[in-house]
Amino acid sequence: MSPKISAEASSARSIYRILTKEYPDARCELDFNSPLELLIATVLSAQCTDKRVNAVTPVLFKRFPTLEMLSEAKSSEIEKIIYSTGFFRSKAKNIKELANKILKDYGGEVPKTLVELVTLPGVGRKTANVVLGNAFEIPGLTVDTHFGRLSRRFGWSKEIDPVKVENDVAKLIPEKEWTLLSHKLIWHGRRICHSRKPECGICPLAKLCPSAGIGLI
DNA sequence: ATCCCGAGGG
DNA sequence: CCCTCTGGAT
Question: pLDDT, tens digit, for every residue of A89-123?
Fold first, then answer.
């Protein structure tokens, strides 16, 4: 019996190979010096460019260098520092309460499991997987808007629910590639496979992509 | 106008 | 499922 792989898995391997060639440097673009810094940077990155997050995090971490200081900080002071990242009231509240919960419930250490990470305020599954993959080297698929859109365009998933997309893609790509695959999909989504007007004409995946020229999924 | 590597609440 | 939270870049 020769081992057979599905058409989707075969496509996924080919696409991953090309993305690796196109984006050899794809990586997390948030600046951080510890798991806690990455966690907070990722919370701040919602609906905000990484560049802007990187402009405020050094100020935030210099003013509040420890979990204790963050948890006792005045929300208004955090808000002023992170203002330009948007959603500043909820993000400030989340950061303060997240610091408090890590102290109370996790012994002052950022937890290393998805189940624990998502108990923190402001931390959803996507943020948790960013931390696991980039601070702890634990493979995770970070299904954001780009990841979901590209997965559907490639025919890897028909789902909208990010958890279902994650499960579909997990079957197609070896676990050890998950973190890098996430970055490469996101880079490609930002550069070429845009939401509104994907540039299929210059896309190196056009020949493999069932949505090429059709666009708009 | 529309998008930026979302999360939480109803 | 929908809505809301938000400023900045283009």
Answer: 999 999 999 999 999 999 999 999 999 999 999 99
Residue A215 confidence (pLDDT)? 45
Both A20 and A91 in one domain: the answer is: no
* pTM assigned to the model: 0.91
A210 part of a folded domain: no
Provide the domain count of chain A: 2
* Catalytic residue (one of A126, A176, A184, A197): A126
Looking across all nucleic acid strands, the nucleotide with the smallest C1' to CA distance from residue A83 is: C7
Boundary residue ending a domain (A100, A116, A135): A135
- Whether A50 is catalytic is no
Asked whether residue A207 is assigned to any structural domain, the reply reads: no
What value does the CA radius of gyration of chain A take, rounded to a whole number of Å? 19
Distance from C-alpha of A176 to C-alpha of A136, rounded to nearest angstrom: 13
Establish whether the CB of A48 is closer than 7 Å to any nucleic acid atom in strand C: yes
Average pLDDT of the segment spanning A54-59: 93
Place of tokens 């948007």: A86
A74 labelled catalytic: no
